[in-house]
Design a protein that fits this description.
Elements (H helix, E strand, L loop, with lengths): L4 H25 L7 E5 L2 H12 L4 H18 L14 E6 L7 E7 L3 H8 L4 E5 L2 E5 L2 H12 L11 H9 L2 E5 L1 H7 L1 H24 L6 H20 E11 L2 E10 L4 H7 L18 E5 L3 H13 L6 H18 L2 E11 L7 E10 L1 H12 L10 E14 L2 E12 L8 H10 L4 E6 L4 E6 L5 H8 L13 H8 L7 E5 L1 H15 L8 H7 L6 E8 L2 E9 H17 L1
Antiparallel strand pairs: 1-2, 1-6, 2-3, 3-5, 4-5, 6-7, 7-8, 8-18, 9-10, 9-16, 10-11, 11-15, 12-13, 13-14, 14-15, 16-17, 17-18
């Protein structure tokens, strides 16, 4: 068969394509699977431009200063402060090789347009090799040789052990970090064993200290510490890898992370027993709240843990032993109910009535059964003892009506022991949060749900009007542009979603503190409008899956702009 011009052209294009892929893969392919940490800065010039375009919308001066500082920090990290010979249009990668008893080894893969100039800037302490216009260098000659071997055998590269999800996330980031957790656990196995022993010793010491304190029931507190500490250590032992990626744009900053664990490990089973949910009810909450939070998971485990903690707060008396037994029986019945997702939002009200206004929805069936059990529980809650606190609980079933549904009212009045609160700081904080009347809580039980409103002047009627409003109503969060934008940046299905108006919360808190001193708050409605501060939410979501837990965080540019305006106004008023 004759070699015609079409075959020749195809052959040339194939060679060009292969050479391009080879050159592009040098940065990460040179890092072997022995690396504990891999860091990649995608196209520094383009990434810095994205950061500048974002921050210049906040403040031009800050933008220029940030870009210069980032360039300087990266240059010094590369041992080349002035970027001599470096090509900033291409990607930089760094491999970190960990050792249990000595400093980590660093391997740099840096794109160069003048290799000689780059090598001269590094000095004589670095060993280096030039591959496809990438300079590979390290103080450890063996790491450079290992990198050259990895280029010849791609199955030795750290990329060969990335899952498809981890590789996609790593490649998507302007700044990406990969942690080989399985390797790190192997390297630091002795340290982990010592950490387990230290946790047990610390818990034992804490138990002795707390048990010696009069009026302190240490069991529930120690149980919480033990669960958190041992659960964290177990997750570390079960871990496989962790990947995180920053993405910059004119619209905001995104951070996505993926935590992967060993298949069928204790942590993997925990993840898979808590499937994510769409959490759509959150959009039906009242508009313009300072925060919206929704969660889904293994409700039975959470209820058991929470109720066990509460049960341990009963004083060791015969009367309380009987109350504790009844409480335990009620908990068993509560566990037989079917629980779904949980939703929460809050706003800050007037100081005179207590500033905390919180709204919650818990999905539970049958809800009328829970109401009956709650009534029984309230009759014995007087027996619960809190260290240094004397509390009086007033419970009024059917105290109010909202939306044609009876509302139960609970008021908890707490008095703190002067010895534990000599300056009356805690007393004042309780009054600021909940008002002089105490912690006021309203509960309603429509079919399949439990509605709860906390706060002296917080309205169950307002809450129900939003929950039952038409889909296009302005009363609900789902028709608020800031909420829509923020929710779109979270996971569609999740175990946890949180939307927080950081600037709005800070402004309300500062106004409340000013009001408590009988001063005018720094953020009047007129000033807020003149500054152009509008609702804007930081977004966080967490999702469990098979062998994985992923998170997404997003900070919109409006959040940064609001924050800078708030800071500037406070600075001028000092």
């Amino acid at each position: 068969m004759l070699f015609n011009w079409k075959s020749g052209l195809l052959f040339c294009l194939l060679l060009i394509s292969l050479s391009t892929v080879s050159a592009a893969e040098v940065p990460t392919a040179a890092i072997s699977s022995e690396a504990g940490i891999v860091i990649r800065l995608k196209q520094p010039q383009a990434t810095l431009q994205k950061m500048s375009q974002l921050t210049s919308q906040v403040d031009e001066a800050i933008s220029g200063l940030l870009a210069a500082n980032v360039r300087t920090v990266v240059g010094r990290s590369l041992s080349n402060p002035t970027w001599e010979g470096v090509d900033p249009a291409r990607t930089i990668s760094v491999g970190v090789f960990l050792h249990a008893e000595q400093d980590p080894g660093l391997l740099f893969i840096v794109p160069v347009k003048d290799a000689a100039a780059c090598k001269a800037a590094l000095g004589e302490k670095y060993h280096s090799a030039l591959e496809e216009k990438w300079l590979i260098y390290s103080e450890d000659k063996k790491l450079v040789e290992q990198a050259q071997a990895s280029l010849k055998q791609t199955d030795q590269s750290f990329e060969s052990q990335l899952s498809p999800a981890a590789k996609g996330l790593f490649d998507s980031g302007d700044l990406s970090v990969y942690l080989n957790l399985q390797k790190m656990v192997q390297i630091y196995q002795a340290q982990l064993k010592r950490a387990e022993g230290q946790v047990d010793r610390r818990l034992t010491e804490l138990a002795k200290t707390m048990n010696a304190a009069p009026g302190v029931n240490a069991k529930p507190i120690l149980g919480l510490y033990s669960t958190l500490a041992k659960g964290s250590l177990q997750a570390v032992k079960d871990s496989h890898a962790y990947t995180t990626a920053f993405q910059f744009s004119e619209q905001g900053v995104g951070l996505e992370s993926l935590f992967e664990v060993k298949p069928d490990s204790e942590t993997d089973r925990l993840f898979q027993s808590n499937p994510p949910q769409p959490l759509n009810q959150l959009g039906h909450f009242p508009a313009h709240q300072l925060a919206y939070i929704a969660g889904a998971g293994n409700a039975d485990a959470l209820i058991t843990w929470g109720m066990n903690m509460t049960a341990q707060m009963f004083d060791e008396t015969q009367q309380n032993a009987e109350a504790k037994e009844k409480f335990t029986e009620i908990v068993k019945e509560i566990r037989s109910l079917k629980f779904g997702s949980y939703y929460f939002s809050f706003e800050l009200g007037k100081l005179a009535d207590g500033v905390m206004h919180a709204y919650t929805v818990s999905e539970v069936s049958p809800s009328n059964k829970l109401r009956t059990l709650t009534h029984q529980m309230m009759q014995i809650m007087q027996n619960v003892s809190l260290p240094g606190i004397k509390q009086e609980i007033t419970f009024k079933p059917d105290a109010e009506q909202a939306g044609g549904i009876p509302v139960d009212l609970t008021v908890i009045k707490q008095e703190l022991d002067p010895a534990s609160d000599p300056l009356q700081i805690q007393k004042r904080m309780l009054e600021i949060l909940y008002g002089p009347s105490g912690i006021t809580n309203r509960m309603a039980y429509p079919e399949g749900k439990v509605l709860q409103v906390m706060g002296g002047s917080a309205s169950m009627q307002k809450f129900m009007e939003a929950l039952n409003a038409p889909d296009k109503s302005s009363l609900t969060a789902q028709n608020q542009p800031a909420f829509q934008k923020a929710r779109a940046h979270g996971a569609e299905k999740a175990n946890l979603v949180a939307l927080v108006d950081v600037s709005g919360t800070v402004m309300r808190i500062l106004n409340i503190f000013a009001e408590s001193r009988q001063q005018t708050g720094p953020f009047a409605e007129k000033q807020i409008r003149e500054l152009g501060i509008q609702d804007s939410y930081l977004t966080f979501s967490l999702t469990t899956g098979k062998q994985s837990l992923s998170t997404k965080t997003y900070i919109p540019v409006e959040n940064l702009q609001n924050g800078f305006k708030v800071y500037s106004l406070i600075s001028r008023q000092k």
